[in-house]
Design brief:
Structural class: alpha/beta
Largest sheet: 8 strands, parallel
Shape: globular
CATH class of the largest domain: Alpha Beta
CATH architecture of the largest domain: Alpha-Beta Barrel
Order of helices and strands: EHEHEHEHHEHEHEHEHHHHHH
Distance between the termini: 52 Å
Radius of gyration: 20 Å
CATH topology of the largest domain: TIM Barrel
């Protein structure tokens, strides 16, 4: 399927997150923002090329602008996976050099590749030669006992020298032994200053920052300081309306929907279609639990969906019941 989406300059993106940013999550997020760049969960090149798992690339054209994130360490295999992604219509192919999980390490990709910048360069060169869409990188500032201020400039220089022009930097080291993937999102200290230093050292690169950013005010501060973009992870997922519902205003535009209630109603036809294909309601509603976070009725919304969406036969009426509970509580508090 050709990519017919018009390119849009973005200042904000939702980070690729395993088990979270699937196609249902991305559809929901797109209903809140036209501008924010969306990413798939990491898809491994071996799964696509050797495993024939092309279904992992499925997405709705309404998600554009949407990028695929690939994991792998074999240049030829990554090139073929990139070709497949471009053929499916993705507007960008991103290489994961940041995931610290044991499974990723055993496959010799993800954050462990911070130790092999020459291999990363070979992979990126092969991917760029295979596709016409942009090839980008998401990396850490280093791993284990590496000194980020020593290794990160060399890493970025190698990336730049093969023609990659955009890098998203998660401003933490990854500890490959002794910390779980969850702990790797919190325990290693953030070094935002280093990311700013890399932008000053590599002005020709588009540098995006990631890690621990929880609000649009924080995002604006990084943009005002000269970074090219901000990638937000957990906050965009757990409090999506707070982040995405106001994101388009950073471009001087109104959001697609004025309230989270309208977003929920806009999801109903999508839910119907998913159920008609044999899907389950909780496959979608698990991504919707935080949409009213911090607002009246949020607890009732989460409870109704959490208790009922997994029940066989549950459908859009459960979502509308949960929305009614939110509306009723909001009305009571407004009296």
């Amino acid at each position: 399927m050709p990519n017919t989406a018009a390119p849009q300059a973005a200042k904000l993106s939702v980070a690729p997150m395993m088990d979270w940013t699937d196609r249902h999550c991305r559809y929901l997020h797109r209903l809140m923002s036209r501008r924010v760049r969306l990413y798939t969960e990491m898809v491994t090149a071996p799964a696509l090329v050797r495993g024939g798992a092309r279904h992992l690339l499925r997405f709705d054209v309404a998600e554009h602008p949407v990028a695929v994130q690939l994991g792998g360490s074999d240049p030829d295999e990554l090139a073929e996976a990139a070709r497949m992604a471009e053929a499916e219509g993705y507007s960008e192919v991103n290489l994961n050099i940041g995931c610290p999980s044991d499974r990723v390490q055993s496959g010799t990709f993800g954050a462990v590749l911070m130790k092999s910048p020459e291999l990363v360069a070979s992979c990126l060169a092969a991917m760029r030669a295979a596709v016409s869409v942009p090839v980008t990188v998401k990396c850490r500032i280093g791993v284990d006992d590496q000194e980020p201020r020593l290794i990160l400039p060399d890493f970025l220089a190698r990336v730049r020298d093969v023609g990659v022009t955009e890098v998203s930097i998660h401003a933490r080291k990854a500890w490959l032994q002794g910390l779980s993937p969850k702990e790797n999102r919190d325990i290693p200290p953030l070094d935002y200053d280093l990311v700013h230093e890399m932008k000053a050292a590599f002005p020709e690169l588009s540098i995006w920052i990631n890690g621990g950013i929880g609000s649009l005010d924080e995002a604006r501060s990084f943009l005002d300081a000269g970074l090219d973009g901000v990638m937000i992870g957990r906050a965009a997922y757990q409090t999506p309306w707070d982040i995405l519902g106001a994101a388009d205003r950073m471009h001087g535009e109104k959001p697609p929907h004025a309230t989270p209630d309208q977003v929920v109603l806009a999801m109903v036809p999508y839910i119907d279609a998913h159920l008609n294909e044999g899907g389950r309601l909780n496959g979608i509603t698990r991504h919707m639990l935080g949409i009213f976070s911090g607002r009246p009725g949020a607890r009732a919304w989460r409870r109704i969906l959490s208790e009922g969406a997994h029940v066989p036969g549950a459908g859009p009426e459960l979502v509308l019941t949960a929305l009614e509970a939110v509306t009723e509580q909001s009305a009571v508090l407004a009296e």
